[in-house]
Design brief:
about 60% helix; single chain; about 1450 residues; mainly alpha; 69 helices; elongated
């Protein structure tokens, strides 16, 4: 029974319902209840009344009529305001029963009285709070009665019923607590839900009384009230949805925050309501989409935070149910407000973990944010991806992991560190521990290689972090020795070559730092002196450079050095740590002991201690000791026996054995003492007997590095080893022979006897008729003569004279294969040529062993090597040797001269002519010769083994047509210059040798070398001078990066001083001196134009090398300018020239010896190369740019990397869609200009290395093939007589980079393709920067510090559609379909001819004179375009 339909009656309806005598009727045994009795008596009587009403039911009409006066009496003010809570409770229970008994008609007719009664009952419900109260059962009865009868429904007819309901709701929410059982909560829910569901509506105040319990602050205070509100809203969702929607509409859309006190908590409420039931917010979500587009950044941030929680919650399907809102939310990843983007990225982690199906949507947005300019956002992208991957690798795809991989090279250390550490943790979890199986391990197997590659970075922080990652994640040092070595063994076997090199370099650096610390400790043992202090200071500076933040580290290292000097125990601990016999366990104890002594309990953060820990971690042998080496050897033995788990680890047994030997070889350099055991050497002897040549070679090298005590301590090993070494020196591979000879020399005391036993039979058995059997003996003899010159120098002289030179080098016994290749793989080189190469090396080793020129053998050898360079490798000039073999011999000869130059006694006798011949090898026609020679040159220079003049050779690399080669040469220069400058800073004594160390002193050598460049024949030829300027700037650009000690003025002074001298090579030849002075003027022109600081006074007067320049004559003044003002302007403005750089001029030269780059015409190249005739015809006249790109990438050098020849066919109708399908070689045609502002045409890098047969047929319509210039050949009388004739025939056709050949069937295409190419290139180059600016203005993608996206998207190579149209129109002279240029940036003209032409004019109008353009282009073409505009 309830009051859901009760209607209060008029007051007269119940009047007179009293007893016959006018008194109130009480239940039997209950006396009158008035204010005259005591409280206890009142309570006693009221209890009896309560019992009576409890027992009554609605059907007892007589009793109802009898007790009606009592019911009215209990509602009097006396009871409602009674001060005793027990009285009030009993009265409330009576009133609740009265409402039950008289339902559906209440006995109280007055609205005010009803309000007072229900407010009174509500107040009594507060007693529910204390469940331990003796009266709790009565309070529960009261609640139960009210809920069952729905007594509060009577209040719906009251005008101010909302006040009662609000008070009731607040009371119930305030009293609910964790001590209440489910019945209490259920009755409360019944009571409140009946009010909500049966009323006319929910007011905002009543809704607030519910929603306030969802706010986090209230939620944390009373979790039960939150749960009650949550269940209540779920039960009444249909009723309250409209009220909730109205509330949020008022606040979110209309901005009426005054409608509720909860307005400031709307986003918290939305989150909680969504978690309760998403249906509550069906009409609210569109309002959130509106808020996401707000102009207020803070408001957008709040909405993003809210939606991140809604979308990211585990059971949410909001993203699939409301796609528009999801897409709008994803747009906030690109918000202009940094906190909004940051919050979006943070959300992605939860989304990836809870909703893997949304990863695809998130990937593209995370990609953009991984390049965000804000460091914090890039950092959080990494954290997001790594967090999800650590939860489950399946949650992240390869693309997301790729973003983390990219950020390992970020410019910011914090981002790099997070990326590296995150990847390391993934590797340890999924690869080492195998937590997700083999498939997951394979997915992240690339991590180990990537992390080790970072060791190539210059930052010391990166290097130290890689070392830490290696010690903690890749090969955890806390593993047991066997497990640790197994991990290292298979890691090393699975690394890529670059990662292996990085790991080897890491061990090398750690070993070097150990040696520095060892030397520092040795200095502490010596008596104090000025020299000792100076040496100690230098050593401290070296150690500091190997620590983070070297500037601060210097102070800490000095402090640590003082502590070492004062504390002998600390010094002994450090000595034990770096001793060769220190075990890994001892190292751990030493590190902890040293750290304990240096710790300061009063200073929690101790930067000094942190620095010392960094140092100790780098020098402590935490991985390798004698026990570890034994474990490695056992693993290798298992691989040899076939009992290892190689296949399970993903490595083949052969790879495991070979990699294991390589690993042991590397460790033999850094930890030689750990190898000294019979067991280890027995295993190595077993490897020596294996058929794998690499394995045996590595084993010999390990013996060489570690076997110093074999002879005394292990005689059995010695007796077994000697015959094996003899056999390898006589009949092994060349590498084995070399290592065997060095091994004998290193570990045996009777090495003279041992070497003699090898030398004598080999020297007697040399036979040039069997070149296959010569290579190993020549290697052994060469190394024996180098290691023991006193014993074998004289016997070797007769071998050299009678066999090496006369019988081997001066004879060609076989005829080489005429295949047109300039280079062949090692396995295809003829044995005779390999023997000749080893013979040249033998000559060098023999001379390096003697280290004197008393017998003039060095002069003879240098003349022989020079002759080989002059003859292009064909020393006999019988033309029996192949082109590829000649390339091998040229490389060997040039490398031999460079090797001899490393010895001072031989460097003195190398003439300038021989030096120039050697230098020209870096411009050899064969790509591999240039590449290998440059690598050897750099390797020797960076170790300070070669004199400074050899660094000048790199200036000639400006002529190299391959972009990668030029870039490599520039990096080599940067490295060499920085090393020399650093060496001068670190070594005070080096100031005495500045002439041979100071990088700026390379300038006079460079000027002299360029003055004798065989391409430089006319001192006033602008094209040749431009080549000289490019070479000069190639070197000067690096030197002038910093104006250290006013070096710009110093270099200018050197060039000026050279003009006061003469060329020591030909002091009396006026033409030679004129060329020298001309080069000086070009150098001065470049220096003056590039530096405003060069006019200052030079800090000191430079010294010029007397080997190249004469002493300046007294009263000699050379103020003549050898280049005209017009030429100077042309050089500085960079007006395009019609030909490339590497041209060969077939004229009598004063210096000989460089092989020409072959300039092949279409007829020459067309026969030996497959012409790609299937390319889209829209390529048109783009073949020139395609060949340029081929040269830039360096992928088509010789036939191993074939050149793609593009056939050019005139076309009329060009489909712009098809134009987009051109392959990547053609797509990058915008990259015409090369590095450092060079404006030159380019030849295909492959075409330069392809020799063509002279008897090939040539299309009659094609141009005649020019005669091949022979660069560097010593002129003969015949050529001298025809010099004038050759001037016309052999003009520089396309010096340097050749153009791709044109199809022979289309002479018209050739004509169109070459008519105006140089001028158009120049215009295109001027257009490219402006295009780039426009694209930058268009770009909306945020680029990062590390790699800006627009650098790629708006580069000339990718935004050259206007340039393409101009080139196509030039060849076809036809209109093309219109396509849109950059929006709003160019005029839109219907004809593509006019559009392309005027795009360029508008971009370059300021820089270019219209008249110049008229001259460069066809006049009619120009006026046609102008008329159309």
């Amino acid at each position: 029974m309830d009051f859901s339909t009760a209607q209060p009656k008029p007051a007269t309806a119940l009047c007179g319902v009293v007893s016959a005598d006018g008194k109130i009727a009480y239940p039997p045994g209950v006396k009158e209840i008035t204010d005259k009795i005591t409280t206890d008596e009142m309570i006693k009587r009221l209890k009896m009344v309560v019992k009576t009403f409890m027992d009554m039911d609605q059907d007892s009409e007589d009793e109802k009529q009898q007790y009606l006066p009592l019911a009215l009496h209990l509602a009097s003010e006396f009871f409602l305001r009674n001060p005793n809570k027990d009285v009030r409770l009993l009265v409330a229970c009576c009133l609740a029963d009265i409402f039950r008994i008289y339902a559906p008609e209440a006995p109280y007719t007055s609205h005010d009285k009803l309000k007072d009664i229900f407010l009174f009952i509500t107040r009594q419900l507060k007693g529910l709070e204390d469940t331990k109260s003796p009266q709790f059962n009565r309070y529960f009865y009261l609640l139960e009665n009210l809920a069952w009868v729905k007594s509060y429904n009577i209040c719906f007819e009251l005008e101010d019923c909302n006040e009662i309901f609000i008070q009731l709701f607040r009371t119930l929410f305030s009293v609910i607590n964790n001590s209440h059982n489910k019945k209490v909560q259920m009755h409360m829910l019944d009571l409140m839900s009946s009010i909500i569901m049966e009323g006319d509506g929910v007011t905002q105040e009543l809704l607030d009384s519910i929603l306030i319990n969802l706010i986090p602050a209230h939620k944390n205070l009373n979790k039960q009230s939150f749960d009650l509100a949550k269940v209540l809203l779920k039960r009444t969702v249909q009723t309250v949805e409209a009220c909730i929607a109205n509330f949020f509409n008022q606040v979110l859309v209309l901005g009426r925050s005054s409608v509720s006190d909860l307005s400031e908590h709307v986003f918290d409420l939305i989150q909680e309501l969504f978690a309760i039931d998403p249906h509550l917010l069906l009409s609210v979500m569109p309002q959130l989409e509106f808020k996401l587009k707000s102009n207020d950044g803070e408001e957008r941030l709040a909405v993003v935070r809210l939606l991140a929680k809604l979308f990211g919650s585990k059971d949410s399907d909001l993203a699939t149910q409301n796609r528009p809102l999801w897409q709008c939310f994803l747009g906030r990843f690109n918000d202009i407000h940094v906190p909004v983007r940051l919050e979006s990225v943070k959300f992605a982690s939860h989304c990836l973990m809870n909703h893997p199906d949304l990863a695809k949507d998130l990937t593209e947005y995370l990609k953009v944010r991984s390049h965000d300019p804000e460091e914090a956002i890039r950092h959080d992208v990494i954290v997001t991806i790594i967090t999800a991957a650590k939860r489950d690798l399946a949650l992240v795809n390869d693309q997301l992991l790729g973003f983390v991989r990219e950020r390992t090279l970020d410019k910011r250390w914090r981002v790099r560190k997070e990326a590296m550490m995150g990847l390391a943790q993934l590797y340890k979890k999924y690869c080492l521990h195998g937590e997700a199986g083999k498939e997951a391990a394979e997915k992240v197997s690339w991590i180990k290689d990537k992390l080790l590659h970072i060791y190539y970075q210059n930052s010391i922080d990166d290097k130290l972090l890689v070392e830490k990652i290696f010690a903690q994640y890749l090969v955890p040092h806390n593993l047991e020795t066997e497990e640790r070595m197994k991990c290292l063994y298979y890691l090393y076997a699975s690394l890529d070559p670059n990662a292996v090199k990085a790991l080897n370099e890491m061990w090398k650096c750690q070993n070097m730092l150990r040696s520095h610390v060892r030397e520092l400790l040795d200095l502490h043992k010596q008596p104090t002196s000025e020299a000792n202090c100076s040496a100690m200071f230098g050593k401290l500076m070296t150690i500091a450079k190997n620590l983070p933040d070297p500037g601060k580290a210097q102070d800490f290292v000095k402090k640590f050095n003082q502590v070492l000097g004062d504390d002998e125990k600390l010094r002994s601990q450090l000595e034990l740590l770096i001793s060769p016999t220190c075990s890994c366990k001892q190292a751990d104890v030493c590190v902890r002991e040293i750290a304990r002594k240096l710790a300061n309990p009063k200073q929690p953060t101790n930067p000094f201690l942190e620095m010392v820990k960094f140092l100790l971690e780098r020098i402590a042998p935490v991985h390798i000791d004698s026990e570890a080496i034994s474990a490695l050897v056992k693993l290798m033995n298992k691989s040899i026996e076939g009992t290892a788990d190689d296949e399970e680890e993903g490595v083949s047994p052969d790879t495991a054995i070979r990699s294991g030997l390589e690993l042991l070889k590397v460790l033999s350099f850094t930890h030689p003492t750990s190898f000294h055991s019979a067991e280890t050497y027995e295993s190595l002897l077993q490897c020596l007997r294996m058929e794998d040549d690499k394995v045996a070679e590595a084993a010999i090298q390990i013996f060489r590095n570690t076997g110093h005590k074999i002879e005394t301590d292990l005689p059995q090993i010695r007796s077994t080893l000697i015959p094996i070494l003899h056999q390898k020196a006589k009949r092994g591979t060349p590498h084995q022979a070399k290592q065997a000879v060095h091994c004998i020399h290193a570990i045996f005391t009777n090495k003279e006897v041992q070497l003699a036993q090898i030398f004598e039979p080999l020297s007697r058995s040399l036979n040039a008729d069997v070149p296959e059997q010569l290579i190993t003996p020549l290697v052994s003899l060469g190394h024996i003569s180098m290691l023991a010159p006193d014993q074998f120098a004289s016997p070797m002289k007769s071998v050299v004279a009678n066999f090496i030179v006369k019988d081997l080098l001066m004879n060609d016994r076989s005829t080489g294969e005429k295949n047109g290749k300039l280079w062949s793989p090692d396995e295809e080189v003829s044995p005779e040529v390999l023997a000749k190469v080893q013979a040249i090396k033998l000559l060098v080793r023999w001379l390096l062993g003697m280290k004197n020129n008393q017998s003039k053998s060095a002069n003879s050898t240098l003349r022989l090597l020079s002759a080989m360079l002059v003859s292009e490798g064909d020393l006999t000039e019988q033309k029996r040797i192949s082109k590829s073999d000649m390339s091998r011999l040229r490389l060997a000869a040039g490398s031999a001269i460079m090797k001899l130059a490393q010895e001072p006694c031989y460097h003195e006798i190398i003439t300038p002519e021989q030096f120039q011949l050697c230098a020209l090898v870096i411009n050899d026609e064969c790509y591999q010769v240039r590449q290998i020679f440059a690598q050897k040159l750099h390797k020797a220079l960076v170790k300070l083994l070669l004199p400074l003049e050899y660094m000048a050779i790199f200036a000639l690399c400006a002529k190299d047509p391959v972009k990668e080669r030029r870039a490599h040469a520039r990096q080599c220069l940067l490295k060499n210059i920085s090393i020399r400058r650093e060496y001068i800073k670190q070594n005070p004594m080096a100031t005495e040798k500045l002439l041979s160390l100071l990088p700026e002193y390379v300038v006079p050598y460079m000027i002299h070398l360029l003055a004798h460049d065989p391409d430089f024949t006319k001192s006033q030829d602008v094209d040749q001078l431009r080549d000289i300027k490019e070479c000069l700037w190639f070197m000067l650009e690096v030197l002038m990066t910093k104006n250290e000690n006013n070096s710009h003025a110093f270099m200018k002074k050197m060039a000026e001083n050279i003009k006061l001298t003469k060329d020591a090579q030909s002091p009396d030849e006026s033409k030679t001196n004129e060329k020298l002075y001309t080069v000086c003027d070009v150098a001065l022109c470049v220096i003056n134009s590039k530096s405003a600081l060069c006019n200052a006074d030079s800090p000191k007067d430079p010294v010029l090398p007397m080997k190249f320049f004469t002493q300046p004559e007294k009263d000699f003044c050379n103020d003549k300018s050898y280049i005209s003002e017009e030429t100077r302007v042309l050089l500085l403005t960079g007006k395009p020239k019609p030909a490339g750089v590497l041209g060969a001029v077939n004229k009598p030269l004063s210096a000989t010896g460089r092989k020409p780059y072959v300039r092949s015409t279409g007829a020459e190249t067309g026969s030996n190369i497959n012409v790609n005739s299937e390319l889209n015809p829209s390529t048109g006249n783009r073949s020139r740019e395609q060949s340029s790109e081929a040269a830039e990438t360096g992928v088509s050098e010789n036939e191993e990397n074939p050149v793609r020849i593009i056939s050019v066919t005139p076309v009329k109708n060009i489909d712009p869609v098809k134009n987009k399908e051109i392959n990547s070689d053609q797509a990058a045609q915008g990259n015409i200009s090369s590095d450092r502002g060079k404006k030159r045409t380019v030849t295909a890098a492959g075409a330069e290395n392809i020799q063509q047969k002279t008897d090939e047929k040539v299309d009659e319509s094609g141009p005649p093939a020019p005669s091949k210039p022979r660069r560097g050949r010593r002129p003969k009388s015949e050529s001298q007589g025809n010099a004038t004739k050759n001037d016309d025939v052999n003009k520089p056709l396309s010096k340097g980079r050749k153009r791709a050949a044109v199809s022979q069937e289309s002479p018209g295409g050739l004509e169109a393709g070459n008519a105006k190419a140089p001028k158009l290139q120049d215009v295109a180059k001027k257009a490219a920067p402006a295009e780039r600016q426009i694209d930058l203005q268009r770009s909306q993608v945020l680029g990062s510090d590390g790699d800006s996206l627009w650098d790629i998207e708006s580069s000339p190579g990718n935004s050259s559609s206007d340039l393409d149209r101009l080139k196509v129109c030039e060849s076809s002279q036809e209109d093309t379909e219109d396509s849109e240029l950059v929006k709003g940036s160019f005029l839109k003209v219907q004809q593509a001819v006019c559009r392309g032409f005027f795009d360029i004019i508008l971009l370059n109008f300021i820089d270019y004179n219209i008249n110049t353009l008229c001259k460069n282009l066809n006049h009619s073409f120009f006026w046609l375009a102008l008329f159309s505009l």
